[in-house]
Write a structure and sequence with these properties.
Elements: H1 3-14, H2 18-26, H3 31-42, H4 62-71, E1 79-82, H5 88-95, E2 101-104, H6 108-120, E3 128-130, E4 144-147, H7 154-164, E5 170-174, E6 185-187, E7 194-198, H8 199-204
Parallel strand pairs: 1-2, 1-4, 2-3, 4-5
Antiparallel strand pairs: 5-7, 6-7
Helix pairs in contact: 1-2, 1-6
């Protein structure tokens, strides 16, 4: 997350002094900083989630957001970010015309940060951040999905998405591809790479069939 976001949010929403957060800022980019933020602020939101389904928060870079939006170019309708973190992808989706633009995130701190970013952008109340477990959300009305999740949870997510999404849906995965699906297209390199999957195509090619499913 941006240093100014951390500092301003700390002052606005929690009343902490900038000095305490300054220590984290000085250590930005190091493993220690990541651990401090994760253990002290972000981990509490995951205590209700089984260990194998937990996904640590890593903010998307500007290039990653740009790549996601490029793979959704020309599309419209509802856009959902699963595990929306600080809300930057949802906010950009709203700016590019997706209605509604929704983020699902368990951690209350990240939800506060998301709403703060929306307020600062003049979009508060127009984008929606909901404190819900992404594994329990019904996605049957979603045509555009973005995910920046750990590889360990992607096989389970494949099953959920195939069971719930309409044929017209497109799923964009950032950083890591879905293990059993062939992407329609992709953009970027290394950790900025994103992959787009059209659900109708995934179903037609029989990708990720349940065990015992006849050919």
């Amino acid at each position: 997350m941006d240093p100014d976001d951390i500092e301003e949010l700390a002052m606005e929403l929690q009343g902490k002094t900038v000095g305490g957060w300054g220590l984290v800022q000085l250590a930005a980019g190091t493993g220690f900083a990541a651990y401090v933020v994760w253990a002290g602020v972000l981990m509490p939101g995951f205590r209700r989630v089984p260990l194998k389904l937990q996904v640590p928060y890593v903010p998307s870079s500007a290039k990653q957001v740009e790549n996601v939006m490029s793979l959704l170019k020309g599309r419209s309708g509802k856009m959902v970010d699963l595990g929306s973190g600080d809300g930057r992808i949802v906010l950009e989706a709203y700016k590019q015309g997706f209605r509604p633009a929704v983020g699902y995130e368990l951690n209350p701190w990240l939800l506060r940060l998301s709403n703060y970013r929306a307020w600062r952008a003049g979009c508060y109340g127009q984008v929606f951040y909901q404190q819900q477990d992404l594994w329990k959300v019904n996605l049957s009305d979603c045509n555009n999905i973005s995910v920046f999740l750990a590889p360990s949870v992607l096989p389970l997510l494949e099953t959920k998405l195939l069971a719930e999404l309409p044929d017209e849906a497109r799923v964009v995965a950032g950083r890591f591809p879905f293990p059993s699906w062939m992407p329609t297209t992709s953009v970027g390199e290394d950790m900025n790479r994103s992959w787009a999957y059209d659900i109708k195509t995934v179903r037609q090619t029989g990708q990720n069939k349940p065990e015992g499913c006849p050919e």
